[in-house]
Amino acid sequence: MGLIYFIVTVIILLIWFVIGLIMWIPMLTRGIAIYSLSLSYAAVVNAKPSYMKRRDSELKQATKFYLVGFKRIFEMFKSRNTEYEERIEGQKEEKMKIGVFILELLWTSVFWTGFLYLLMPYLLFPIVERLKL
């Protein structure tokens, strides 16, 4: 049974490695951009330090996103016994935040579409030139 759990863990880690990275880069880019713009605004208008607290937490969340995914995978498989199941049942049910998830997926799609659109000429032209030969 241990080998099966190991194989399943490796598969899930590989999937998270790809999907998590695809989602993390746009999230981190947005977090850095918003934080930088907010910091510029706060400096120009001489805003109170409390203005930046929300931006700090958003940037920290974006920074930790990818690593938290790995941490949760290891926690889930590390404590796969009944103690884990009892702990899960004892937790208060969280509401699904499907709207937030959909917005993140939308942002990820827009980010990568724009990124590839900008890079497409640089990626395709060398291939097209080789095919003309």
Would you mind describing this structure in some detail?
This protein is mainly alpha-helical. Helix content is 86%, strand content 0%. It is built from 4 helices and no strands.
Q: How many discrete domains? A: 2
Structural class: mainly alpha
The amount of beta strand, in percent, is under 5%
Helix content: over 70%
Largest sheet: none
Unreliable stretches (pLDDT < 50, length at least 5) are: none
- What is the residue-averaged pLDDT? 82
* Radius of gyration computed on alpha carbons: 21 Å
Order of helices and strands: HHHH
Give me the secondary-structure topology.
Layout: H1 2-45, H2 53-78, H3 82-90, H4 98-132
Helix pairs in contact: 1-2, 1-4
Describe, in short, the structure shown:
The chain is mainly α and 133 residues long. The chain contains four helices and no strands. It is flat, with a radius of gyration of 21 Å.
Descriptive tags:
mainly alpha; 86% helix; single chain; 2 domains; 133 residues
